[in-house]
Amino acid sequence: MAQNMPRKYPHIITLSLFASRFDVMFILRRFSSQNEQQGVPDVCTLLKHASFLVPLSQEHLVIKFCQLMHHLLNQLKVIMDEQTLDVLLNYTASALKMCSTWTHSDVLLALSTVVYGNGPQCHQHLSDLLGEDGVLLLYSAPSQPNMELRRVALNCMANICLRIPGQPPLDDQYRGVCFRVFLTTLQSPKPPNTDELFYCMVIQAALKGLQCCLSGGKWKFNGGEELGSVLAILKRLMFQGAPGVSVEWPAVLYPAPLPQYEGLSAPKSAEPQKPSEPPKDNKKRKSRGKGKKTSTEGSRGDDGEEDDREAVSALQKGGGREGGRGEGESLSKPSAPSLYPSWKLNSSDSEFSDMEGNAQSKLRLNHGHVRQGALHCLLAVVKSVEKRTLYGYWSSFIPDSPTGGQPPLTLLTIILKDPSPKVRACALQVLSAMLDGSRQFLAVAEDTASPRTSYTPFSFSLATAIRELHRALSLALLAETAPQTLTQVIKCLAYLVANAPYHRLRPGLLSPLWKQMRPYVRHRDVNVRVSVLTLYGALVTTQAPFPEVQLLLRQPDSGSSSAGSFTPQDSALSWRQRDGTSSPSRTPVTPSQRSSHTHSPHILRTPGEEESSPPWLLQLCVSLVTQPREDQSDSEGAGTGGGAALEPSPIRLEALQDKTQLMCITVLLGLTYSENYLVKTAAVRALGVYILFPCLREDVMFVADTANTILATLEDRSTNVRAKAAWSLGNLTDTLIVNMESVGVDFQEELSDMLLLKMLQAATRASADKDRVKSNAVRALGNLLYFLRRSQLTRSAFQRPLEEAVRALVKTVQSEATMKVRWNACYALGKAFRNPALPLDSALWSCDAFSALCHVVTSCKNFKVRIKSAAALAVPARRSCYGDTKRFSCVWRSLATALENSEDTNDFLEYRYSASLRHTLSQALLHLLSLSQSQDMPALGQSLAGEEGKGIKEHLIRYLRAEEGGGEGAEGEKDAGGDGFNPQQRIGCLQQTLIRLKGLEAEGEGGGKEERGKEVVVSFLEDLTKTCEELSSCSAGFQKTET
Fold first, then answer.
1. Run of H or E residues at 609
2. Locations of Polar residues compositional bias (predicted)?
């Protein structure tokens, strides 16, 4: 076989003959040099040939080959093909079966490298590895005495569970086996006579595996006990090795009852936690013990290393963090009060003279890695568990009781006291994930009134938790010096501000934070500056009372003049004159023009001029996005996060003067021509926000300029830019509809026909784009088809674009796109049907539109899409819009069939929309009856005469008596033009329909069939009306009797 070896791999012969003499690193160096000189070698071919050259009987050679396999795949980042993967898996699996136990550590190390991210492709070998007697289960069991084997086996299982983006997840059967092994490992106590350092490494491997399980696809916990067990063990490991923490941790955390979610049932325990009480396991305080930190812990940057070095002297003195948790926080009082934590104080470097060989420092380093891994797992749990389920566990991780007394051990304890900046950053990421999307939950919080003395309301406890988060994060902001962690603190504050209901809280939270953030605007780290702008964006769009926000915006800039030197009066930034005499500037301001005013010295203004100047925050944003970048490398070093700094926040233009509004508009229109796609994305999104403001949406010139800008960005090669442009186009067309209904024809006539035609064609093209773009493109199409006037629709230039637009909507409704896209397409057709000028009765595409909606209303699995299609079918206000008798009867049959099957679903999540679906379908059927003519009577009579008619009657009675509906059904009713009808009004409309049908006269040769059909329909409606009146009388009599 050696004769067939490729000549470019002569070192394979060396490996087979002299591997017992030569170290594997020698061969690795040869590979590295070959990689640099000749390019990346064919490592897969090499490893396959080597697996045949190294027999399993030569165990020393097997070890060397496994080491080589591990180093090559790791260093060269090789992506293996299926054949190589199968060969190496067979080799390592055979080695585990045939070789001695002393070789298994290296074999498992090689196996973990081979299976890294390839778990789904290893299905043929998973039964041998993870089966009932699998080798990985044997070596990873808590009874395994060899801790190194146990660690490597757990690491191998973690790599099997790891999911690479774009690949399918691991089979649930094997993922569940691995999950139970990881959880059992974390719950098992440390074996006796086991070195603490090795045990920490085992725990790290188990935490890594648990994180891969939770992040490798959708995961469902088996009941609340399992979720509570995972959260309990993660909370214990969050404080692994923390000095002074010695508490009895519970085995399971139980959720606290949440009064705002009445439908949720929480598992009961012997002593359930109450929202107003600290958790059971938080009886003792965390103290600061002795300990050193290695420089590796702060390896993210020099600042992190300095932080860890500065931690030592205060830690060895046992000092607490005075400002961290309030009174009584530390076990020993510091000599002088300080807002900075003990681990920030300077210390002598002499204590680190021999850290490399110090076992205690290595142990502390590994304890920090355990805490970091536990927080990563907790972050994965937060992202995989439904928000409403997680709210019950908030009190275990976020303090929800007033400060004072013994503080509980929570995420804030880690944020304020942990000596490692990486661990603190992880805790902040977890807290940010918990706060993200919690607006509905936090909306209950209120402390404007004094609480009752007998008990603490849940709303007051939640408000106290918000105040405690503000206090702790503000202290962390003062104390933190590591730039990466400081960035996370500010981001966490942004999530808190974006979700907290400040209008229900006592004032005094936002103003101090606003002032506290001012120095960080000029921080030397670009990521900190980006996060500060994100926080300010959250502050100006928060739910706080508007006068408070306006006051904060109007506060003068007390800092340096570098950010306040921008003068909006400069003619280079004027957008256009309000009288329309000058044309808009389509070209961004040149760098020379920018520098002429952005770097001008600070000019003293009179009090009157100060009052009329723009807010300092607006001046800062404008100067940041218009002036040339002074430090190119620093700005580019921000990576993708740098785009957030350039995104103009939707500041409330209503509060600003005209010239300030013009400055904002000018900047945004210019930024849409930026070469940076992040800038372009943010700018076009901001235009989509501005177009919704009442102060701008009726300005025809601004609408036209915004439309032209959006149309240009819709052709961008970046999907993100096109998606935001489509979203903004949807908002702009929403504005057109609002203006049409409020201003009237005058606004429609002022808009250029050519511009509307371009918008229609651009939206049609975008409807064939990716789903992210298509979702809003079809929304824009529906609005445009509703907005166009008869004089425009009859023009030859609009005929073909009109047909293409409708067919694009029909194609989207019938496609396999996401349900959100199909929902928007059905909504768009309903919008279009509301335009009386649309030729529904004569156009060729009309039949396709109705057929698509009829198909969706009966067959779509998603009930919300069915609701929108039924609402769209009920929109046309004239019988002629439904076409001939055949099409009308097709629509009727589809609606009747959908009503009959409105409860048939295998998905419980869809079942909750069934009442709304029946509500909309019933309204649509009555709408068809109100428009029906004599030629429709035979088909209607045939439908209402049999069993189908009895089912329809039952549903119509519920609708007429308002026994069910709302939700999505209310939306459908609004689109159909019958929103807000009470039972009396619905019965009144039914009686009018009955009177009209009685007056119909049969026409043509089929008069007999039409008359018989009319008799059936009239009898059906009379019986329906009589039943509803009788039920109403009985209900009224019953209520009178009770009174």
1. helix 607-612
2. 557-574
Q: How far apart are CA 559 and CA 459, in angstroms?
A: 39
Q: Is 654 a residue whose pLDDT tops 70? A: no
The identity of residue 916, as a single letter, is S
pLDDT tens-digit series, residues 880-922: 899 888 999 999 999 999 888 887 776 666 767 888 888 899 8
Specify the CATH architecture of the domain 398-449+456-543: Alpha Horseshoe (1.25)
Task: Please list, residue by residue across 809-845, b when 16 or more beta carbons sit within 10 angstroms of its beta carbon and e when fewer do.
Answer: bbbbbbeebeeebbbbbbbbbbbbbbbeebebeebeb
Whole-number Å distance between alpha carbons of 47 and 75: 14
Q: Are 809 and 849 in contact (CB under 8 A)?
A: yes
Residues 6+ apart with CB under 8 A from 26: none
Return the pLDDT at 853: 92
CA dist., res. 203 & res. 182, Å (int): 9
3-state SS track over 746-763: HHHHHCCHHHHHHHHHHH
Please give the Cα distance from 589 to 579 (Å, whole number). 23
- Return the pLDDT at 1037: 56
Q: Is 903 exposed, middle or buried (0-12, 13-18, 19+ CB in 10 A)?
A: exposed
Calpha distance 522→1010 (Å, rounded): 81
CB atoms closer than 10 angstroms to residue 752: 11
Closest CA to 285 of 246, 254, 253: 246
Question: What's the CA gap between 139 and 153, in Å, rounded?
Answer: 6
Report d(CA 43, CA 924) in Å as an integer: 66
* Residue of 602, 606, 633, 631 lying closest to 619 (CA atoms): 602
CB 976 within 8 A of CB 833: no
Residues in the chain: 1043
Biggest CA–CA distance in the chain, Å, is 110
Q: Residue 28's pLDDT band (boundaries 50, 70, 90)?
A: very low
pLDDT recorded at residue 452: 61
Are the CB atoms for 321 and 472 separated by under 8 Å?
A: no
For residue 999, what is the enclosing H or E element? none
